[in-house]
Amino acid sequence: MRIDVVSIFPGYFDALELSLLGKARQRGVIDLRVHDLRDFAHDRHRTVDDTPAGGGAGMVMKPEPWGEALDSVLAEAEADADPLLIFPSPAGEVFTQATARELAAERHLVFGCGRYEGIDQRVFDEYASRGRVRLMSIGDYVLNGGEVASIAMIEAIGRLVPGVVGNPESLVEESHEADGLLEYPSYTKPARWRDREVPPVLLSGNHAAIATWRQEQRVERTLRVRPELVPRNMLPEELRGSRGRHAAGRD
Ligand code: SAM
Q1: Burial of 110 (0-12, 13-18, 19+ CB in 10 A)
Q2: Pocket of ligand 1 contains residue 52 by CB under 6 Å
Q3: Ligand 1 nearest atom to the CA of residue 139, by list position
Q4: Is it true that the peptide bond before 90 is cis, omega within 30 degrees of 0?
Q5: What is the pTM of this model?
Q6: In this predicted model, what pLDDT tens digit does every residue of 110-145 receive, in sequence order?
Q7: DSSP per-residue letters across 4-38
Q8: Percent of the chain, pLDDT > 70?
Q9: What was the pLDDT predicted at 239?
Q10: 91 CA to middle of ligand 1, Å?
Q11: How far is the CA of 93 from the centre of ligand 1 (A)?
Q12: What are the E-state strand segments in 159-234?
């Protein structure tokens, strides 16, 4: 997979040289290239922002450097790669594990990291008229810039690209996968630590009993922490009728 990132803080992406993604880059499974937006601003101060049209607080990122930067990245794309442009934004669609799985099948992703009050709307409109553009939020809160959001999305997507995680089975039983429940609690050795025991069933060697215990833990934990994620048919009878945004259960 090819990933390009455009940002005024390329240094943020040094974090993606570490760990599994760093190794995947060394092996050539992921080809990640980071571009400095300021390289596409031509005045003495390499200006990338200006005051908002219509007035108001803050600054808005200018369309010209974004246009040059994205044109340059897209000009280097392989002919049939059909790059997807992703702009992190708290006003975008919510990025989920399902989105990560969908995007892990793409050949070429381009992340455009906004700062200040965001990027001039015409940049999104221009590239949406020429190809595929998605605005994506990593949650209902506001960050200072798109860099941390892009890193979170690149890591979630990247670990699903075949060849990045050594044992693909470790991806299957995780939170938000398959039936959408949260993962069961994990334990390792020693069997006893500070008077706290590993649940005896996990040391029993009885695989069926372990599977049943883990599934019960998943349902119990999800009901307690994120009741809206529990499929309605897995809910206890008394909760099946409740409705509303924070009510338990999804269809
Ligand atoms: N004025 C914008 C609004 O109210 O929607 C917020 C701008 S925010 C201070 C600056 C940049 O941070 C955004 O352009 C976006 O790239 C990024 N950002 C902030 N929160 C985000 C979130 N929850 N998900 C994804 N990106 C986010």
Answers
A1: buried
A2: no
A3: 23
A4: no
A5: 0.93
A6: 999 999 999 999 999 999 999 999 999 999 999 999
A7: EEEES-GGGGGGGGSHHHHHHHHTTSSEEEEEEGG
A8: 97
A9: 74
A10: 7
A11: 12
A12: 192-193, 196-197
Residue to substitute in 143, 148, 154 for testing ligand 1 pocket (most ligand atoms within 8 angstroms of CB): 143
Tens of pLDDT, residue by residue over 182-198, are 999 999 999 999 999 99
CA dist 222 and 29 (Å) reads 34
State which ligand 1 atom lies nearest to the alpha carbon of 141: 23
φ/ψ of residue 68, rounded to 5: -65, -45
Between residues 149 and 176, which one has the greater pLDDT? 149
Which residue has its alpha carbon closest to ligand 1 atom 21? 90
Residue 138 tokens read as: 């990593």
Q: Which residue has tokens 């649940």?
A: 199
Pocket test for ligand 1, best of 137, 142, 150 (most atoms within 8 A of CB): 142
Q: Is the CB of 65 under 6 A from ligand 1?
A: no
End-to-end CA distance of the chain: 34
